[in-house]
Amino acid sequence: MNKLVNCCKYFSKITINTTKNQYFIREYASHLSDYNIKWVRPEPVCITDPKKSGDLGIPHDIKATNLLAGYENSKELQDADEIVKKLVTLEFHPRKETIHVRREKILELVKRHKLDRGSPETKIAAMTAEILQLQEIIKKNPRDKKKKVFLKEIIEKRNKYLRIMRTWDYKRFEWILEKLNLVYKKPPLDNTPPYRKDSLRKLTQKLCDKIKQEKLDAYKAELQNQQKLFYTQKLEDFIFIRNEELELGIESTITEDDIENVRKKLNEF
């Protein structure tokens, strides 16, 4: 029986404490609303959004009537029938052939020579072509989690290559960004997600600093105004004392230079 009473007392204390905490939280929230401090959780950026990957799109003119890769310079195809020419176009082949042709066109933008496949520029261009293809697939199938994970891995790998190239050869880094129409964003130093409590503390501190600075500026303006009145009165007193000393035939303790210095300081205000 005693154990039951003790348990009831313990849970009653917990309920009282929780109600007090809720009361204080509500009071704190209303206090923040009085100062127009509001925090909205940032919306997550989708992996297909250019803000996340930095891909602004590469313009290309790939059509269904284009020939397959390797048939552009075929002499036999020039004298062939129209039906044969259509059979080697992208229209009558799987989509992977269209992806291959687009990938080759993107690689041609940064190739050092015709057989270049291992330079950092071609590797970045190949990853860019893969990223553009995966983004198209995910837009059609937004629930494909495997593709999203794969896309995220490729974007991080390409950013690693770009970061290395940025430190190694900055001119080539800018050149490849321009060729592939990319935007490189330096990774943040602090990757922790935003929390409401920490964000409200930062916003409150920012508001306090703003109020403090406004009061300091107002006090500084008031002091400057008082300095102007002080130098005005000082100039009048110096002129009066000098004139009185000259009329009485006493050696003047205030020179013309002193009066001119006071006049210069007054003109500054």
TrEMBL record:
Compartment(s) where it occurs, according to its Swiss-Prot or TrEMBL record: Mitochondrion
GO biological process per UniProt: mitochondrial translation
UniProt entry keywords in alphabetical sequence: Mitochondrion, Ribonucleoprotein, Ribosomal protein, Transit peptide
Gene Ontology, cellular component aspect: mitochondrial small ribosomal subunit
Principal localisation: mitochondrion
One Pfam assignment: Ribosomal_S15
GO molecular function: RNA binding; structural constituent of ribosome
Family (UniProt): Belongs to the universal ribosomal protein uS15 family.
Official protein name in the record: Small ribosomal subunit protein uS15m
Taxonomic lineage of the native organism: Eukaryota, Metazoa, Ecdysozoa, Arthropoda, Hexapoda
